[in-house]
Design a protein that fits this description.
The protein is an alpha+beta fold. Helices cover 40% and strands 34% of the residues. It is elongated, with a radius of gyration of 17 Å. The N and C termini lie far apart (71 Å).
Length: 152
């Protein structure tokens, strides 16, 4: 059986998403965002949604400040048509401020499931779910207990 046009497109789309994770998120090459995100890129459901490559650069910078060693690991990736879905295990050490929480030094892990739509080889939209709110709760507790220790 030869490769169909649909499976070739799905493979190309998966490669774009894998590049985003490998080179940009994990590798820190944020200048490549212009190559993988459409100018009108929109992220849905992540608080104040970043738009376009510049918005995503700012979001990544915020995360890199809080978690300088942040890494995403793709556990599963599925593509069909113009959609790619990835299951990610993320990890990092809380070494910078995040959401009003001072650095705790805690190594944390969280999971994400993201779906992206691509057109003309670039990501145009992203939707995601993450259990990161549990990480935030944990970091707030650790920060509070560290603060109590410093005042005793």
């Amino acid at each position: 059986m030869g490769m169909t046009e649909g499976s070739a497109t799905a493979d190309r789309n998966k490669a774009v998403v894998e590049r985003l994770v490998r080179d940009i998120v994990n590798g820190g090459q944020v200048e490549l965002l212009d190559e993988v995100l459409a100018d009108d890129f929109t992220a849905h459901g992540v608080g104040p949604a970043p738009s376009g490559p510049d918005g995503m650069r700012r979001l990544i910078a915020t995360w890199r400040t809080a978690f300088p060693d942040w890494q995403d690991h793709i556990e599963e990736i599925v593509a069909e048509g113009d959609l790619v879905v990835i299951k990610i295990a993320a990890q990092g050490t809380h070494s910078g401020p995040l959401l009003g929480i001072e650095p705790t030094g805690e190594a944390v892990e969280w999971g994400m499931i993201e779906m992206v739509r691509l057109a003309d080889g670039k990501i145009t939209e992203q939707w995601g779910y993450s259990d990161f709110s549990e990480v935030v709760r944990h970091l707030r507790k650790v920060a509070a207990s560290q603060s109590e220790l410093q005042t005793d």
